[in-house]
Amino acid sequence: MKCERLISLVKNWYLKVQEEAMAPARMVAFMEKHISQCEECLADPDVKLEVAKIREIVLPPSKVPKPKVVRTAKEGVDEAEEEYEDEDETSDDNEEDADTDEEDAEDDDLIDDDDEI
After folding, report:
1. DSSP annotation string for 1-36
2. Are residues 40 and 80 in the same domain?
3. How many angstroms separate the Cα of 61 from the Cα of each of 33, 44, 50, 53, 68?
4. What is the pLDDT of residues 11-27, one digit of tens each?
5. Contact 42, 2 (CB under 8 A)
6. How many domains does the chain have?
């Protein structure tokens, strides 16, 4: 990185992240914002690679941006079928719950504690 201001900011932000005074994702957002607005950073061809390295260090693995996956038409159909099957299973469960509730209501009508035997 050639931009001294960015270097200084990154050092300060990283210390805040280590102190848990700043979220790592916020630090990354600040770096990207600075790079998009700074003339010196815009002219530096290596700054994107260096920021990517910093991002990997700072962000936890679950927050690292993943490459977008391109799905084929067949995969989309398979996923839609799986969702449809999941809906069928949940509707069957709901029907069973309704049957049990009705049976419980019938049982309540048949015997009460106050009834004489």
Report:
1. ---HHHHHHHHHHHHHHHTTSS-HHHHHHHHHHHHH
2. no
3. 22, 27, 18, 13, 16
4. 999 999 999 899 998 99
5. no
6. 2
